[in-house]
């Protein structure tokens, strides 16, 4: 069974060894291991993707042993296996202002296009609270009066709702590295309202328009700590406009039609396991 283990905490010596020794001692086959040691931040982070012998030691036992190591070493550890429980993947949707992408995903779930269960909407603004109420979902505003998010509360909500995937549906804040590492390995999906890598940043429509582009689009990609969306693209699509089309009309098409459609397809690909993230690169998965 494929399992991912993440470890985040204050940097120190000998943090990785007990985790690696334990899982290999039980008989796990490690497919991927990445470590991050940032001196200026004094932050240690590690990600493991492995094939776990669940017939030898059940996942709950693995989790308990890993948590014991975390307590001993002062690390926050998470053990995640999508196949651990026989249920649909649970999704947390994070938003700021625009509700159209999130609603498109919720409608696709209701229609059976995406085989997942939405469990909570989290916003750094209140704008999408009515969307949560419409779909009978809990809503949590983690932002202050300026929209600055409480990232600790965000992680607590992910854990309390037992989230499998985090969907950033026009969530207009950058996740800090510790959150990216905590849910590493293709568990955080982001909608960027522009074509990457050409138009990053917070105003891709305006940037493309200023370059006299006639093609605009959206990009769905996995989030990684380094903020590099070069090899993490899940799905990307574009739409063309006629010369002279006003920026306002371009944004209307993109925000109300194109972005939602693009996001639905990207999320579907992940949920249907057509793609995964290996070594910070999106790879296609052959059907079994």
UniProtKB/TrEMBL annotation:
Q: Which UniProt keywords apply?
A: Hydrolase, One-carbon metabolism
**SUPFAM superfamilies documented for this protein:** ACT-like, Formyltransferase
Task: Tell me the GO molecular function terms.
Answer: formyltetrahydrofolate deformylase activity
Record's superkingdom? Bacteria
EC class: hydrolase
The enzyme's E.C. designation: 3.5.1.10
Q: Which InterPro entries match?
A: ACT-like_dom_sf, Formyl_transf_N, Formyl_transf_N_sf, PurU
**Signal peptide start-end:** none
Q: Name one GO biological process term.
A: one-carbon metabolic process
Q: Please list the residue ranges annotated as the Formyl transferase N-terminal domain.
A: 90-256
State the name under which the record lists this protein: Formyltetrahydrofolate deformylase
Q: Which organism is it from?
A: Gimesia aquarii
Q: What is the lineage of its organism?
A: Bacteria, Pseudomonadati, Planctomycetota, Planctomycetia, Planctomycetales
């Amino acid at each position: 069974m494929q399992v991912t283990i993440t470890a985040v905490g204050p940097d120190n010596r000998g943090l990785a060894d007990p985790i690696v020794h334990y899982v290999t001692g039980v008989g796990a086959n490690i497919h991927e291991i990445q470590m991050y040691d940032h001196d200026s931040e004094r932050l240690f982070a590690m990600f493991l993707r492995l094939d776990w012998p669940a017939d030898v030691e059940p996942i709950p036992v693995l989790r308990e042993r890993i948590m014991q190591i975390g307590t001993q070493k002062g690390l926050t550890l998470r053990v995640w296996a999508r196949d651990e429980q026989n249920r649909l993947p649970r999704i947390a949707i994070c938003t700021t202002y625009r509700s159209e992408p999130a609603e498109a995903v919720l409608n696709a779930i209701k229609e059976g296009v995406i085989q997942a269960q939405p469990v909570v909407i989290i916003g750094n603004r209140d704008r999408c609270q009515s969307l949560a109420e419409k779909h009978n979902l809990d809503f949590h505003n983690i932002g202050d009066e300026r929209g600055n998010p409480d990232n600790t509360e965000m992680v607590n909500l992910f854990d309390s709702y037992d989230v499998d995937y985090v969907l950033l549906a026009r969530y207009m804040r950058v996740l800090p590295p510790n959150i990216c590492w905590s849910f590493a390995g293709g568990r955080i999906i982001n909608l960027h309202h522009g074509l990457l890598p050409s138009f990053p940043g917070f105003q891709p429509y305006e940037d493309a328009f200023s370059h006299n582009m006639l093609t605009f689009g959206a990009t769905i990609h996995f989030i990684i700590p380094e903020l590099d969306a070069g090899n993490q693209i899940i799905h990307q699509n574009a739409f063309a406009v006629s010369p002279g089309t006003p920026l306002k009309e371009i944004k209307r098409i993109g925000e109300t039609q194109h972005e939602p459609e693009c996001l639905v397809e990207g999320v579907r690909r992940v949920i249907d396991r057509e793609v995964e993230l290996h070594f910070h690169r999106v790879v296609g998965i052959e059907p079994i």
